[in-house]
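Ex. 9. Protein: Rieske (2Fe-2S) domain protein.
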Amino acid sequence: MRVTGTGHASMRIDTPAGSILCDPWVNPAYFASWFPFPDNSQLDWAALGDVDYLYVSHLHRDHFDAAHLKRYVSKRATVLLPAFPTSEMENELRELGFTRFLKAPNEEVVDLGGGLKVMIQALTSPTDGPIGDSSLWVEHDGVRLLNQNDARPTDLSVFTELGHVHAHMLQFSGAIWYPMVYELPNAAKTAFGKQKRERQFDRTWRYIDDLKADHVFPIAGPPCFLDDALWQFNDIHGDEGNIFPDQSVFLEEYAKVGGTNGVVLLPGSVAEVTADGCETTHPVPVAEFFANKVAHLEEMRERKRPIIAAEKASWRHPEIDVLGEMQRRIEPLLNESIYLAKGVGGPVRFDLVDGDDAGTETVESIVVDFPGKQVRPYADEKVRYRFRTERALIEHLLHIGEVDWVNSLFLSCRFSAARIGQYNEFVYAFFKCLSQERLQYAEGWYDEHERAVDAEDITLGDWVVQRRCPHLKADLSRFGIVADDQLTCQLHGWRFDLASGRCLTSVGHKIRAQRADEETPAPVIETTT
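Predicted structure tokens for Rieske (2Fe-2S) domain protein:
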């Protein structure tokens, strides 16, 4: 099995029975804030895109590059389609010209012929990507590969049961806006960033240990930030709280926990994976490339300046009445929302400014009032969340009818945020569900989990707790760690106070717990939103 690195989470898998191109991403994403690094724009994409199969793990724009898919990927390719709850991915791919689809049943092996087999595991909670994320398992002639990309399954046993895996591709770096955009003292940002960076690596080590593959490939990040306004997010400034470590840092950290089987793929690297080993060739020496990272980034920044400038010029739509359009689009969804609106539980404010200067004066403040089910001008009340961003970005989202403000505005990091109290997942869940189809699915998912009762318990240290994490049902017998009467679920880093059952990370999501030496079980605390 030959694996060609094509950048970020992208790779081409070649076997005698067929070729698969995974997640090709080249063009900037999220308001031209994210770029692939190392740069992959100069690869021979016409040749790389001439494949038998296309696999796109999910709709995040650093995995689903519509312009690139349309221009470079053969429309004769059969799309390996995850079993997502909505038809959005298929619809978007059909609009790009793809006509052949293999709708893979979830977690079922599909024989493609010639000894080539695949299986796709689809994750379908409202917090998994833009309504869904997935992993691809591939086997040919006894050689097995798992492309986990940035999916976060609670259990990898469905893959280990199919036989020993020889190549494991997975995310290790950050892919979010926290904590950089929050209006916090620098010391607090560094502390929170350091904690998140450590959690990212801990989660990666857990997945690696679960699968026990012969070779581990760090992929799916980090992006690079080439706009001058975002340049500080690159991990080149000696900031221990930076959440975007690169592949060379992965190898260093992996060695500290005994890892010796890491393999880095640069764009153009080729790994020949067999049951007996992995031989990899690179276009340039890996260590030398990352030793010159700053120079590569600076050269790339200058080369991409015209692209960023052209993107920025397209955002302004002053003809749009932002308040009126937000009312027209969002109020019907608020009226239909039960679980998400209740979960947010208060007003969310958008402060709109002209220009990207953080000190620019606010020109309009708009409140999305979840209890009141309306969008209205800010009335000087307290709000749970406040977002500050360029008016042009909101104008653009409304102009193009964007249904997912998470997979656009928030991932761009082109905003600042403040909040009262704990993180609230329902805020971001709602703003990625600005369509009837997405909202109805999310409401149904939360309704199902609200009604579910997890009766199975496990013992962790001195405590008996419910086996499944109240957040996204991770198996706490594998991901749970208890220290100082607090439980941490390592899958997403959520923490719980065991004495009270209270979630310390977000609102709601109480856990059922009691001390192991208690004779009478503590009252059951049902999972709530």
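Check your answer against this statement. The chain has three domains: 2-307, 322-446, 452-515.
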